[in-house]
Design goal:
The chain is of the alpha/beta class. The chain folds into 2 domains: 2-177 and 308-358, Quinone Oxidoreductase, Chain A, domain 1 (Alpha-Beta Complex), CATH 3.90.180; 187-304, NAD(P)-binding Rossmann-like Domain (Rossmann fold), CATH 3.40.50. The chain has 9 helices and 17 strands. Helix 3 (167-185) packs across helix 4 (202-213) and helix 3 (167-185) crosses helix 8 (310-323). It binds zinc ion (2 copies). One zinc ion (ZN) is lined by residues 54, 56, 75, 175. One zinc ion binds at residues 54, 56, 75, 175.
Length: 361
Amino acid sequence: MTDRTAHPDPVTDRLDHTLAAIWHGADLVRLETVPVPPLGPGDVLVQVRLATVCGSDRHTVSGRRVQPCPSVLGHETVGEIVAFGAGGARAVDGQELRLGQRIIWSVTLPCGTCDRCTAGITAKCHTVRKAGHESWDSSWGLSGGYARHVLLPAGMPIAAVDDALPDALAAPAACATATVMAVTERATPMAGKRVVVVGAGMLGLTAVAAAATAGARSVTAVDPDAERRALAERFGATDVRPTMPTTEPFDVLLEFSGSSAALQEGLRTLDVQGVAVLAGAVLPDAPVALAPEAVVRRHLSVVGVHNYEPRHLTAALDFLARTRDRFPWQDLVADPVPLEQIGDLLLAPPGTKPRYSIAPR
Ligand SMILES: [Zn+2]
Ligand SMILES: [Zn+2]
């Protein structure tokens, strides 16, 4: 629970201190006044406007997922630039960033020099650091969005947010939407294909919209929750099912549920040249049986995607800008509550909307 007794005096005007919700393990999240370290060359200091609560943070606090502790969680954040280190900083599209600009940033902060980074697989950098995942005692304590300010170290992939895109659409772009851009890239082209999306949470609904926008012949959404199936229809699903269909063939399977049972069924339905892209299985689950003969005779591809590349940040914002009038994106994010309530949100049962949100100001 949130410790409401430890309310410090906010002294953020001087920018030498800020307010951060520090997760101390189990269900203890405490609001604390913390120092803002001096900015090094290329660093960017951001004032948080809105942070949405990704399911992975909820898994962390409930103990299903392990990450450094104590730490400031939160990695779906939109904020305004309030200070630069020497030399300023550029967005991933090359534009020079300016004070007051509204931005989002990547989940992963790559080193930029290792063999994976130079090969373009920065999400799997050997020394990757992650927004909202770093220990408070590390060199990047102020990494998470559940705070008034976030420090973005030099090299962090940053994307500027167009004025027309509301905060509630921009914040989830930093994890959910950008990850879906990376997932659908592996299934491209989806035009004319029969696509099945397993799991209709934030990522699944976004993937349904992406498949519909790409011109898929059909988009089937699978989720046991009736409300989510109803949402999927509003995001472009042509068919919704409570469980994986077992008879009709599909060309593309996008897996966000993390359920081995659903995947097992789904792999059987893939037609010739079928592609399964797995993104939901980020926690251990039972192995899945895969018949090598089926892979050979049906030319199947099974690929995994974890996190994304800097280009997917801008792709996410572009996708949301193109589809903001076509799909009810605003309905996926609950109205923001103050930062003081983040501990309660992390422990609350899932809401009717896939994302809770906080607005520190
Ligand atoms: Zn996330
Ligand atoms: Zn690297």
